[in-house]
Amino acid sequence: MKLLLVEDSAELAHWIVNLLRGENFAVDCAPDGESADAVLATQRYDVVLLDMRLPRMSGKDVLTRLRRRGDNVPVLMLTAHGSIDDKVDCFSLGADDYVVKPFDARELVARIKALIRRQSSGKSTALVCGDLQYISDTREFHHHDVPLSLRRREHAILETLMLRQGKTVSKQALMDSVYSLDDEPSADAIDIYIHRLRKHLASSTAQIMTLRGLGYILKAKDG
């Protein structure tokens, strides 16, 4: 899953990015409101973390433009004050949640996961493909009740395939799920990650199939 962090404090942004990547999120970072607005007009994210007070365009204005475009991506506002007026403004403009600085790492991660769960309300908290299980609350993969130990990009690819289980996922879509804007995307690297994942799934009844020229599909083995 991919997040956008909009935060003008380089030190805080660095800390949050490392925290979220440690939780197997792909993270893009924008340092001001104008660049965030430009990125949000062209990129798709699962959650946006948006500082309220930003240079060049306020977080409130970024949020207003986002909702006017009809983009319903969950937005978690980061605010330094947490006054009632600020909170009311955030929610009235279309924010989904807020957290007051300084915040605990566990609280931030918990709030992000809560927003993701809210987006998938009505869906099962566990997805199954053969004997491979994906627990949406923790974003863990289990095989025979044993967690799979995956690297961050392997996790991102398998998560994308599992969430679109039974559907063809293009290599470009996998690249979008793995690489942030600061990375140098590599289509060849996707093949390497797929190869590693097939090794992880060697004893599983879930398999990743290649559809030449189209992409990949995760499905349970027949029989």
Automatic annotation (TrEMBL):
Pfam families listed in its UniProt record: Response_reg, Trans_reg_C
One GO CC term, this protein: protein-DNA complex
Residues annotated as domain OmpR/PhoB-type: 124-220
A GO molecular-function descriptor: transcription cis-regulatory region binding
PTM-bearing positions, type 4-aspartylphosphate: 51
Response regulatory domain mapped to chain residues: 2-116
Database matches in SMART domains: REC, Trans_reg_C
DNA-binding region(s) from the entry: 124-220
Record-given protein name: Response regulator
UniProt organism field: Trinickia fusca
